[in-house]
Amino acid sequence: MPIEKIIVLEDDLIVRKNLEQQLRSRRYDVAAVETIAAAEDYLARDNFDLLIADIRLPDGDATDLLKRLNTRPVRPLVVMISGFATVESAVECMKAGAFDYLIKPFSAEQLEVVIRKAAEFTQLLRVNQFYGRQAEDEDASQLLGQSKAMEDLRQLIRRVARTEATVLIQGESGTGKELVARALHQQSPRNGAPFIKVNCAAIPENLIESEFFGHEKGAFTGALSKREGRFELAHGGTILLDEISEISPAVQAKLLRVLQEREFERVGGNRTVRVDVRVIATTNRHLEQSVARKEFRQDLFFRLNVVPVLVPPLRQRKEDILLLSRHFMQRFMRKHGVKLAGLSPASESALMEHDWPGNVRELQNVIERAVILCGDSGMIEPEHLGLMRTSALSATPASVEPSPAAAAAAPAPTSAAAATTPEVVPLAELEKRHILAALEKCGGNRTHAAKLLGISVRTLRNKLHEYNAGSGNGGAGEDEGEGD
User: Fold this and answer.
1) For the chain, which ranges sit under pLDDT 70?
2) What is the reported pTM?
3) Contact predicate 8/16, CB 8 Å
4) What phi, psi does 450 have (nearest 5°)?
5) pLDDT tens profile 79-130
6) Three-state SS at 343
7) Which of 216, 117, 175 is nearest to 317 (CA)?
8) Out of 3.40.50.2300, 3.40.30.120, 1.10.10.10, 3.40.50.10610, which CATH number does the structure's domain 5-131 have?
9) What three-state secondary structure class fits 147?
């Protein structure tokens, strides 16, 4: 995280001019003043990253200024300088909140070391502010598994993690793509640096550029101060671009530049910011199809797809279902303070027979519900799981009446046997019918249909493009508001 704007508070003209010249030669934005009053005037009008202040000044002691700065929500780091240094004065400055202390005369190299330390500290501070101090709830459970598919995935993660290659993780919703990304970061040389996630589908289109790259003060209405974007927060570490397929063409072009040059400008700014980040992207869509439809830039796809990683759906690794189920059961027993005897043979069979369209996330939710409903000392039975039969999954939900379009899309039975045998429908076809039925129920209003389906308007729009079904269902009331 670079230090950009520095204010120098020094009453000695020669020292002040010398410091200003040194800092400007290193391309810092510098304001140089001789009094506390002038410094406070600058600090009231703008945000500075660093204050270099002599202790004794014509209008007071800089430690008093430091104490006042400590009450502000946004304040620069402070480096105190003095030609009359004592142990007592150094201790007093550090107690007052100074970041560091330099004794005059000091060299340009000594000053640069302090500035570099301040930049590293600022980055850690802002990353902690971004995340809060909450412990991460994620663990490696979704990477548990004894299947060959999971062992192959873990081996691939180990090989790829030690490189700097950009990774594109593809897989259905709920398969654990984010945990694969975290594993890549944790097993990489960058594991001591930040891991920053950006959910591209959850950020409104008009704000995503600011989220990615940050903005300068006054860049737009509400931009009351400079703000670093996620790429700056991830400097030295890894950034995860979750659901990368949801970003607009304009942002795609700017992201391409970052991948190529590792540099950008904040919104409303003209200073080029350079970052050192590893980029990992995820998607639950076929990006090749989006490229073919001109919805996603081909050159960006090639930049992202340096190392493709495919996370298998749970139905393709059934031998992992009971292992994961027992793991989740133990976790939720601890969380909810209950003790269970285990899974009954009937419930194990039900878990193995289910197709798990929601993958590991669905399994986790099913087990948590079962633990809550079963109660102390009980055995989890099929009724606690609440699983729908596979045949029920292929039917149109009772809450949404089928539309003429959905009815027309359904193949007619070819025989009496076909009419009585439950139809096994591909998941993509089932999803298409369900979406069209929801649109019909909502009178073609995409906003209402998206809320009914529990997805964003943007995701609904993309699905309609995917099915070539958008033209007849974009009726009144459609808007671009985002839900998730």
Assistant:
1) 1-2, 73, 85, 125-142, 377, 388-427, 468-484
2) 0.60
3) yes
4) -65, -40
5) 999 887 677 777 888 888 888 989 888 998 999 999 988 888 877 766 665 5
6) strand
7) 175
8) 3.40.50.2300
9) coil
